[in-house]
Amino acid sequence: MLLHGALAEGSQLRPLAAALRRDDARTPDFPGHGAHGAERHELPRFVDAALDAAGDEPADLVGYSLGGYVALAAAIAHPERVRRVVAIATKLAWTPEVAATESRRLDPDRLAERAPGFVADLAARHPGPGARAVLEHTAAFLVGLGSAPPLALENVSAPTLVLVGADDAMVTREECEDAVRRIPDARLDVLPGTPHQYERMDVADLAARIGDFLA
Question: Which residues contact 99 (CB under 8 A, 6 or more apart)?
């Protein structure tokens, strides 16, 4: 089960799904994304959507950014349904200040003025809610992360691989190292020369690392 990042939808991770060459790879949309209607972004609903898409058997959850956060939350809330977790470029050290900074970047009117192509791409990716709703609901979700208790990572019983780019400007190596210390069965891989953006990652290298972990 491959879980997409914020502002994206399931098709974002289809190249990775193809590179993994697994018959069971699925790339669902979270509620409020893609063809779904506009609705508030809530972590429990994202967790439920991921597990519903996975079916009845325990699943391997591979998540990029927001998707990794959802995968870890699912492993905490429903350990019997999660076999293994891969969290790619997933920010875990949220504070009100960090959340405020990240949410300000998502102002729809400012983006429409400064990056109309980006907004048009969002609208095409999200025909259900539309670009403005996705931006506003994502910003509100991030603000909520800033004030919410951190994930209880010590309660993740599933073997976990944490991947972070060496050049990731959003997710620090230190917060990933802290996460690996807290998760009972976890390891960290650092992707050399890699930024936060999934579209700039080496998908073949990513798939090889994930494939080795899931083998």
Answer: 142, 143, 144, 145, 146, 147
Reduce the DSSP state of residue 152 to 3 states and report it.
coil
Q: What is the pLDDT of residues 78-115, one digit of tens each?
A: 999 999 999 999 999 999 999 999 999 999 999 999 99
Place of tokens 């669902």: 28
pTM confidence score:
0.97
**Looking at residues 57-79, what average pLDDT do you find?**
98
> Which residue type does 64 have?
Y
Question: Could you tell me the sign of the dihedral formed by the alpha carbons of 111, 27, 66, 50, in that order?
Answer: positive
Strand partners, 161: 86, 187
Distance, in Å, from the CA atom of 154 to the CA atom of 132, rounded to the nearest integer, reads: 36
Q: CA-to-CA distance for 184 and 156, rounded, in angstroms?
A: 7
Instruction: Tell how far CA 65 is from the center of its chain.
Output: 3
Report the amino acid identity of residue 84: R
Helices (H), the chain: 14-20, 43-54, 66-77, 96-104, 108-114, 116-125, 131-147, 173-182, 203-214
Start-to-end C-alpha separation, the chain: 15
The alpha helices in 36-115, defined as continuous H runs, are 43-54, 66-77, 96-104, 108-114
